[in-house]
Amino acid sequence: xxxxxxxxxxxxxxxxxxxxxxxxxxxxxxxxxxxxxxxxxxxxxxxxxxxxxxxxxxxxxxxxxxxxxxxxxxxxxxxxxxxxxxxxxxxxxxxxxxxxxxxxxxxxxxxxxxxxxxxxxxxxxxxxxxxxxxxxxxxxxxxxxxxxxxxxxxxxxxxxxxxxxxxxxxxxxxxxxxxxxxxxxxxxxxxxxxxxxxxxxxxxxxxxxxxxxxxxxxxxxxxxxxxxxxxxxxxxxxxxxxxxxxxxxxxxxxxxxxxxxxxxxxxxxxxxxxxxxxxxxxxxxxxxxxxxxxxxxxxxxxxxxxxxxxxxxxxxxxxxxxxxxxxxxxxxxxxxxxxxxxxxxxx
Amino acid sequence: xxxxxxxxxxxxxxxxxxxxxxxxxxxxxxxxxxxxxxxxxxxxxxxxxxxxxxxxxxxxxxxxxxxxxxxxxxxxxxxxxxxxxxxxxxxxxxxxxxxxxxxxxxxxxxxxxxxxxxxxxxxxxxxxxxxxxxxxxxxxxxxxxxxxxxxxxxxxxxxxxxxxxxxxxxxxxxxxxxxxxxxxxxxxxxxxxxxxxxxxxxxxxxxxxxxxxxxxxxxxxxxxxxxxxxxxxxxxxxxxxxxxxxxxxxxxxxxxxxxxxxxxxxxxxxxxxxxxxxxxxxxxxxxxxxxxxxxxxxxxxxxxxxxxxxxxxxxxxxxxxxxxxxxxxxxxxxxxxxxxxxxxxxxxxxxxxxxxxxxxxxxxxxxxxxxxxxxxxxxxxxxxxxxxxxxxxxxxxxxxxxxxxxxxxxxxxxxxxxxxxxxxxxxxxxxxxxxxxxxxxxxxxxxxxxxxxxxxxxxxxxxxxxxxxxxxxxxxxxxxxxxxxxxxxxxxxxxxxxxxxxxxxxxxxxxxxxxxxxxxxxxxxxxxxxxxxxxxxxxxxxxxxx
Lengths: 347, 546
Fold this sequence. Notes:
The complex is a heterodimer of chains A (about 350) and B (about 550).
Chain A: H1 3-32, H2 39-45, H3 53-62, H4 69-81, H5 95-130, H6 134-144, H7 152-166, H8 189-195, H9 199-236, H10 239-246, H11 251-262, H12 264-280, H13 282-287, H14 293-302, H15 306-334
Chain B: H1 2-24, E1 39-44, H2 61-70, E2 75-82, E3 85-95, E4 104-106, E5 112-116, H3 131-143, E6 162-166, E7 169-173, H4 182-188, H5 197-202, H6 212-217, E8 226-232, E9 236-241, E10 254-259, H7 263-271, E11 277-278, H8 283-289, E12 295-296, E13 305-311, H9 321-329, H10 333-340, E14 345-347, H11 371-380, E15 386-393, H12 397-410, E16 415-422, H13 424-432, E17 438-444, H14 472-484, H15 493-506, E18 509-515, E19 520-522, E20 525-526, E21 528-530, E22 542-543
């Protein structure tokens, strides 16, 4: 078996990635132009002087919206190949900077929320197979039955009402810190606070993360758990598990093996949620005054800021595609049977 | 394998430590109120997107706020305190960068305005202020695309009309200005901001000679009371006081503008003392906190923010003046004021407000709700029922509610009104291209001078939402009024009254009510303000009892 055959499963995926992104970017280019509203008109609408055709044309050229749609597409492709997504019509800031400056903060909160949910799932899953207690197992099944029943923002709003409005145990949802400004080193707020030695701000941010992270853990744990205990139930009765028991393998090793074989669908769901939340974190972010990628998307839609919206979509999709690739690679690594082209598939 | 097993074992331990750390940190800061009385937090609706309003940048309320707090001009409207509110008088000017006692002198023929500049003023960047800075600023306004000195272009159109007499004296040579008094208002308003030319030139490039890219995202090249200290994207802007501010260092040293996108939440945060000012509140949210002991709100005698009803003349059904007038009689003005604006609004005499200082101008409502009159006018137009689409932006809840109310009341007169709610961008596009039949929107005239009203009726002007085409009679009426004397003179007043009646009668675009300021303040503050641009002036705020 040549090196290529052995490694085809990930090499091909890597080669496809830029092609996928390019195709999506082109789709995004056309989709965005279907939005009602003309960016030039929006820019002119807040002025109060006569709009001459010359002024309109000047502005159109300035915004890069002159020429035919194909001219614009060619310019867009050229920019894409150079890694240039243009500048925001509303702020004049390069779109790449607009997106990348916000990405870490959004990723941080999602990682904490989903990471918490994943951890809770693993712990509950372990308890599920470790303890032969019917009540406990029924309880865990009950938790998993809440999957997809309540949206995350509802949980967050309830949290705000209970812990801020009524009990005053937690501070007002007014951003990541009480006052002052977040230091920016890497863009990940918690990390930056630690790196700059701003332990006071770090403490404030951790407290302000309790509700949003808690809401995500409460919302997403049942979803992950459903996948996990389904897998566990299946894998526990598999021949492999029986063999391990019969062969007298140590208990912890059997638990680990069963969990490893069951976790792949959890990883897939994790990846899907992660991708969905990158663009969809807007609700959580705006509820808690965090700002982030979602806010940028909303602002760009509101002001038909074509470049910002294009850049936002392209970078989000690129990020998600990378995320899905990672999910697949992790799953293939966890379970070699999933690798396309491996001998087990009889090819 | 063993390392992976160890990693799995570690997960719960790490989680437990994280929980422990978060519970050990200072959990006593559950109240975000800044203790220091010279620092305030303000809840705003959205982030400012640009700090420079001279280019083609969106003039959002937040952009105006930043522009007004970081930049000042030669003059400002004088603040007059009434009922605890500092209200700007649009007919009295005081020097800011111009001299306090004698900011300007006008030549006998009214053509030359000489400004006497203050000496010893330094910019936020620390550069001394001279006539060169004024020259640069005016030159920039004339040069950048969107400099917006259009309103005075008939008599001030070239930098050659500006003469530097010496370091602290500069003269504008106007060309056949007549009695138009918009010139001073232009210099006092949004377009009168003065840049520190030294700092601005330091950021200029060959492609960007006027430093537009830099100025859009940076402050510090002005003379305003505040400077942007830091920005956290989408979340907050922190302003710090300029201790060298020409009118004296502001009492409030730090202003944190915090984005809270929901109006109701902004109001509640003020009521629970989490913020000291809540901006851009809906009338309902203002009402919900108006009796709270922590809250105060500005009410003024003559607000200038208005709800603008445009009946677009370039197509049916509103190409017929009788139908337009009928519709104006079918609008439930009092109900709108009471139900939608919760009493925080006043009736509209039309475009001419008492703030313009036209002596004896009528303050009677331009129109009242009169179904019989509406039917009569429709009958005269040969119609018994008319289908109308009333378009609004879905971003402004009170405007949407007002449109729905108008639709239900106008039915009795024979108007079948469909309310069309569009996203702001789509609304702005349709408004500019005058493709709608009619629209309702929030509006404001930042220049409160009678002659300025013409700008809302110029062909092709963005503000001419009713697609009005000036008639000879209209042009003549305006000319006679301008020739009769200045806008505030007894001589010109009767003619402006005629102009007002003419616009009201034409019924193409009218303010249907004037609404009170939409901010609320904590009672720990004094110095609520009402300005021409509806922004809060943080520089005149003081801690209560100080």
